[in-house]
């Protein structure tokens, strides 16, 4: 399944129309349609908006693995996750687009290469 299909699946799970999702993310409805159809790949910023707004799994959204919405862990893990997310957000707010794209590619590579037995 391509990422556009997963974005469409996420949108439908959240009971949003393309127009409603576009408004929530402050992007155009045509951008949502193009990404969902596979006519255009989502930008890193688009992916980050989805992850931040809807707290879905990055592994599921980017790679199609795991659950759309992973089960919540204990509070200390949630706090650590929140701190990491804040660091990531801070980086992407201040970094240039080329640096953001490079980090996304690196993250995708790490996820692909990370042994499944180490994932918990």
N-to-C order of helices and strands: HHHHHHH
Which word captures the global form? globular
Fraction of residues in helix: 55-70%
CATH domain class name = Mainly Alpha
* Total number of domains: 1
Q: How many beta strands in the DSSP annotation?
A: 0
**The CATH topology is what?**
434 Repressor (Amino-terminal Domain)
Which second-level CATH architecture applies? Orthogonal Bundle
Main beta sheet strand tally, sense and closure: none
Percentage of residues in DSSP E strands = under 5%
CATH superfamily: lambda repressor-like DNA-binding domains
Radius of gyration: 15 Å
Q: Provide the structure class.
A: mainly alpha
SS field, number of helical segments: 7
What is the typical, i.e. mean, pLDDT? 83
Terminal residue distance: 23 Å
Question: Can you describe this structure?
Answer:
It is globular, with a radius of gyration of 15 Å. It is an all-alpha fold and 120 residues long. The protein has a single domain, classed as 434 Repressor (Amino-terminal Domain), CATH 1.10.260.40.
Features:
single chain; 120 residues; mainly alpha; 434 Repressor (Amino-terminal Domain); 7 helices; 68% helix; 0% strand; globular
Chart the SSEs and their pairings:
Elements (H helix, E strand, L loop, with lengths): L2 H11 L4 H8 L3 H9 L6 H11 L3 H6 L11 H20 L2 H17 L7
Task: Summarize this entry quickly.
With 120 residues, this protein is mainly α. It contains seven helices and no strands. α1 (3-13) packs across α3 and α2 (18-25) packs across α3.
């Amino acid at each position: 399944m391509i990422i556009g299909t997963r974005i469409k699946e996420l949108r439908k799970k959240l009971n949003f129309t393309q127009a409603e999702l576009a408004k929530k993310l402050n992007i155009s409805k045509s951008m949502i349609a193009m990404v969902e159809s596979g006519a255009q790949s989502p930008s890193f910023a688009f992916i980050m908006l989805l992850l931040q707004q809807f707290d879905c799994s990055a592994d599921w959204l980017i790679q199609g693995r795991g659950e759309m919405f992973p089960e919540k862990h204990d509070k200390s893990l949630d706090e650590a996750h929140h701190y990491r997310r804040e660091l990531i957000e801070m980086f992407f707010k201040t970094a240039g687009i080329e640096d953001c794209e490079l980090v996304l590619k690196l993250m995708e590579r790490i996820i692909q290469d990370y042994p499944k037995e180490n994932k918990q």
